[in-house]
Amino acid sequence: MTHETTPTEGADAEAFGALAASRHSVRSFRPDPVPQEVLDAILDDTRQAPSWSNTRPFMLALATGARAERLRAAYVAEFDRALPVVRKQRGALARLVLTGNAPDGDYRPWAPYPKDLLPHSQKVGKALYTHLGIARGDRAAREEAARASCRAFNAPVVGFVLIHKGLMPFAALDAGLMLQTLFLSAKAHGVDSCPLGVLATWRRPLDAEFDVPKNYHLVTGFALGYASDDPVNDFRAERRPVQLVAPKD
Ligand SMILES: Cc1cc2nc3c(=O)[nH]c(=O)nc-3n(C[C@H](O)[C@H](O)[C@H](O)COP(=O)(O)O)c2cc1C
Predict the structure, then answer these.
(1) Which of 97, 170, 171, 205 has the fewest CB atoms within 10 Å, measured from its CB?
(2) What's the whole-number average pLDDT of the chain?
(3) Cα–Cα distance between 167 and 164 in angstroms, integer?
(4) Does the C-beta of 109 come closer than 6 Å to ligand 1?
(5) CB proximity list for 231: less than 8 A, separation 6 or greater
(6) Where are the alpha helices (DSSP H) in the chain?
(7) Is the CB of 197 under 6 A from ligand 1?
(8) Model confidence over 132-182: pLDDT tens digits?
């Protein structure tokens, strides 16, 4: 028997499609805080995500107010210390290591992309810089854009996703399912978001503010808040269809 769509299901599907399409990465936030009851409602929705054998092998750390400000300052300081390496200055990496300032993240967000995926990353980066009017050779403007991401784009909520290192790769998968549920619920509550992998480059700032259990690794940060009217938020990335593996004849 085939399933017949009921009128409510039809309306829900349309509403869901609109909600999913309306979520996008916001890169400039207003300072207005997200009310605690709104955050609580979003976190409550986040419980609805499935997880591997119901283990929920992830945790969130959420910073607001003075803690979020300290984190912004600490991440920008890490970024600025690492700049000579980003600029490929001779001996910069050795100096960073010798001074105890090497990136101490659990993973390496800066690691080279696989060859077949690199063009997609380059394409969105180029499109975003073009949207911002940043020329290819304008290193200062590019660095400032990267610095803004270390400030979590001034979002009132700076979040961190931690995954249980004993249940990989499923913990990372579950955290992704959880995070998208969180982002969609946030959007339904009028709250915008941006995932921030760049924050996983360093652990020190997070560890100075939160007691992260030893068996949890930092996989990404994220920002939550209300989009400002800065033109950066008019940028839309291309949304390619999910690739389907060709079935065998
Ligand atoms: C795990 C993860 C980490 C990300 N890290 C960053 C980041 O550090 N800085 C940034 O500006 N965008 C970051 N993004 C946003 C992506 O660039 C964005 O999702 C993609 O370009 C598609 O755009 P959309 O989210 O607006 O649909 C990240 C996305 C994901 C899923």
Answers:
(1) 97
(2) 96
(3) 6
(4) no
(5) 131, 132
(6) 7-22, 36-46, 65-86, 92-98, 118-132, 139-150, 170-188, 204-209
(7) yes
(8) 999 989 999 999 999 999 999 999 999 999 999 999 999 999 999 999 999
> How far, in Å, CA of 82 to CA of 235, rounded?
28
The CATH class of the 27-112+149-233 domain is: alpha beta
Q: How far apart are CA 66 and CA 71, in angstroms?
A: 9
Q: Rounded distance, CA 87 to CA 93, Å?
A: 11
Sign for the CA dihedral angle at 84, 87, 89, 91 comes to positive
Per-residue pLDDT tens over the stretch 53-62: 999 999 999 9
Q: Which residue has its alpha carbon closest to ligand 1 atom 14?
A: 195
How is the chain split into domains, by residue range? Answer: 27-112+149-233
- Which positions of the chain have pLDDT values less than 50? none
| DSSP annotation string for 99-134 | TT-S---SS-TTSPPPTTTHHHHHHHHHHHHHHHT-
- pLDDT for 1 equals 65
Residue 60 phi, psi dihedral angles, 5° rounding: -120, 145
Q: Which has the closest alpha carbon to 163: 52, 25, 67?
A: 52
Cα 196 to ligand 1 centroid, rounded to whole Å: 7
